[in-house]
Amino acid sequence: MNIPLAAEEIFSIGGFPITNAVILAVIVTIIIAIVAMMLRVKLSYANPGKFQIVVESLVQYLYNLVGGVMGDAKAKTMFGFVFTFFVFVLFSNLLALTPLVPSTVVDHGHHGEEGELADDHEELDVMMEEAEHADNSASEEEEHAVKEVSFSTCWETKECVLTTGGVKIFEEKAHVFRAPASDINMPLALALISVITTNVLGFKYLGFGYIKKYISFKGPIEFIVGILEIVSELGKIISFAFRLFGNIFAGEVLLVILTGISVGAATLPFLMFELFVAIIQAFVFFMLTTMFIGLATTHHDH
């Protein structure tokens, strides 16, 4: 029962690691592009099919939400941006619930000598002694795919997994696919894009005066409020990233544990719940980005 704490590297290109989360994110992007092209080819104004009607109804509903928050004029130019968040997060979460994602693994073999994990790290002396002792132990212990490590080692190797026996290093096999949102890097990247774009649009619509939101010398109260606004923007990034990451990663942990305990008998009901969570998280990211852009691009009288 292995639940990776960090995305596992499958291969590298020019020294740049390609993790299982990146692989699935690329696949999701390709699927979205293919679906979009298929919809474009089969698009019919005179005789729309049932699937087209459903998609158009969903898009129209979301467009009306965006228009209600920021107005129709801004919605026409910004809907594509916020809708992309919704589509990408939704497809990523849904694809991660398919049986292929958690079950497919690749054999890497051992990542090197055990002592290499503790080089130049005094705090890992205990681990080195355990590794030397393991070399002299029975051969059956050498066949194990995981070994116990300290928490600090996890940050060094980025190869830790959470098992029923504690935090360990996963040496031999790695999952080929992983939900992009269950790797903190992906939600963090989306959060940065959302918050930075929001502020760029604020400058675009309100001009240089937008900076007064963060820097104001009119008085001590205004100055403190500006500092709080900066902290608030950083809080948005953290909130965006960890909300999405926490919900998706927790869902994976829940499904793995329930599957292991009940041999799959209790998985289906919770799988339906995770399906609901996947849709809700996509909608939340979409709606919060819309609201923040609406607030950032609207004049406020003080």
UniProtKB/TrEMBL annotation:
<feature type="transmembrane region" description="Helical">
    <location>
        <begin position="275"/>
        <end position="296"/>
    </location>
</feature>
<comment type="function">
    <text>Key component of the proton channel; it plays a direct role in the translocation of protons across the membrane.</text>
</comment>
<keyword id="KW-0472">Membrane</keyword>
<keyword id="KW-1003">Cell membrane</keyword>
<keyword id="KW-0812">Transmembrane</keyword>
<comment type="similarity">
    <text>Belongs to the ATPase A chain family.</text>
</comment>
<feature type="transmembrane region" description="Helical">
    <location>
        <begin position="21"/>
        <end position="41"/>
    </location>
</feature>
<protein>
    <recommendedName>
        <fullName>ATP synthase subunit a</fullName>
    </recommendedName>
</protein>
<feature type="transmembrane region" description="Helical">
    <location>
        <begin position="248"/>
        <end position="268"/>
    </location>
</feature>
<dbReference type="InterPro" id="IPR000568">
    <property type="entry name" value="ATP_synth_F0_asu"/>
</dbReference>
<keyword id="KW-0813">Transport</keyword>
<dbReference type="Pfam" id="PF00119">
    <property type="entry name" value="ATP-synt_A"/>
</dbReference>
<keyword id="KW-0406">Ion transport</keyword>
<keyword id="KW-0375">Hydrogen ion transport</keyword>
<dbReference type="InterPro" id="IPR045082">
    <property type="entry name" value="ATP_syn_F0_a_bact/chloroplast"/>
</dbReference>
<keyword id="KW-0066">ATP synthesis</keyword>
<feature type="transmembrane region" description="Helical">
    <location>
        <begin position="78"/>
        <end position="97"/>
    </location>
</feature>
<keyword id="KW-0138">CF(0)</keyword>
<keyword id="KW-1133">Transmembrane helix</keyword>
<dbReference type="GO" id="GO:0005886">
    <property type="term" value="C:plasma membrane"/>
</dbReference>
<dbReference type="InterPro" id="IPR035908">
    <property type="entry name" value="F0_ATP_A_sf"/>
</dbReference>
<dbReference type="GO" id="GO:0046933">
    <property type="term" value="F:proton-transporting ATP synthase activity, rotational mechanism"/>
</dbReference>
<dbReference type="GO" id="GO:0042777">
    <property type="term" value="P:proton motive force-driven plasma membrane ATP synthesis"/>
</dbReference>
<dbReference type="GO" id="GO:0045259">
    <property type="term" value="C:proton-transporting ATP synthase complex"/>
</dbReference>
<feature type="transmembrane region" description="Helical">
    <location>
        <begin position="188"/>
        <end position="211"/>
    </location>
</feature>
<dbReference type="InterPro" id="IPR023011">
    <property type="entry name" value="ATP_synth_F0_asu_AS"/>
</dbReference>
